[in-house]
Amino acid sequence: MNSSPLATDPFTLLAAMVLILLLAGLFWAAMASSLKVVPKVSACVALANLLVAGSLAAHALRGVAPDLLTFWGSDAMSLAGLAALRAGMPALSQKPLAWRSGLAIWLCAVGTLATLPYAGDLHPHSGIVYSGLALLAGLAALDTWRQLRSRVKPGLSALLSGPLFIICALLAQRALASFLQGEAYAPDLLDADHSNLAFLWATLAMNLLINATLAFLVLMKLILQIQQLTRQDPLTRVLNRRALQEAIETEHQRMQRGKPYALVMIDMDHFKQLNDSLGHAAGDAALQRLVEVLGHSVRDVDCMGRMGGEEFCVLLPLTDLAGAALVAERMRWTLEQSQFNWQGQPWPLTASFGIAEALPSNANADAVLHRADQGMYRAKAQGRNLVQAREDEG
Length: 394
Description:
13 helices, diguanylate cyclase, alpha+beta, about 65% helix, transmembrane, Alpha-Beta Plaits, Nucleotide_cyclase
């Protein structure tokens, strides 16, 4: 004989799930509206929790409330809840909300349900609903796994995304059974049989773990954003001096294992005159324009950083002096051809470029930076808007 009422009472289990989902929904809603923590994702997760809570609450009222709410309404809300969850996951990686696929699945499932009466044999409805739910849960699980895979070890990413995959499997099993067994299988969440109770317990546990996993993902995103802010120049959005020097140090260690690299030092010409003539706001805008223009000449593997004032540096991995000269000349020409206007006043943008290739004789990365700096000052001394290496290298 079971001493635990929860073990044999599906209504109590449903009520517990509704309460947990409501609390989770309110938590995520506060994250989205008041705290502004990853608002798009938090809003989608809040909506998902609240819709699924509404679906389960409506289901629990079957036989008491109108069938339109407890059958069609419950199914439509559960599908909409998982569609909202699937829609929000890509936003964790600054991608657009994936609402189209979720909406398409929801419309297909709900549209089909609308053509079938909720009376007598319910197994077609069960198959349609659970198929749609399984598909949406599977898409959300894949998105979660992709998010985690890029941030943590493979084993941990599989473990943390596991609850969504388990939910997907549980829903897929019910969908398959509905289609294969027909009238012999018409699952109801209010049934007190052992298989349904096991399903409810598993779903309850997975809902808790899914919300915990999503909270972990959001926390990781916040940590990454904070780390990015500490490594980024606030004006130009390129690396700050410290972050760039760390990247150069790492590349210098690789150079000692046979991987060459080069540096390009950049100093905007006549920056003081620009500030004096047009104001400091114009100077800031000119620096942003310079970064925008030069950014088109660098590869994904290259790093650009602001060393201070109007001085920048570009790290070019796997590049020798000749390659650095080509990149710097392309930058110089592109900048010279660009246009910059401040409140209707045009100003020519040019810069002086110094290049240096890391050599085995360079004891550290600072020596390479110093040589590139000398090349830049040589370019300025020779009239500006030039690309130069140090005199004994050019």
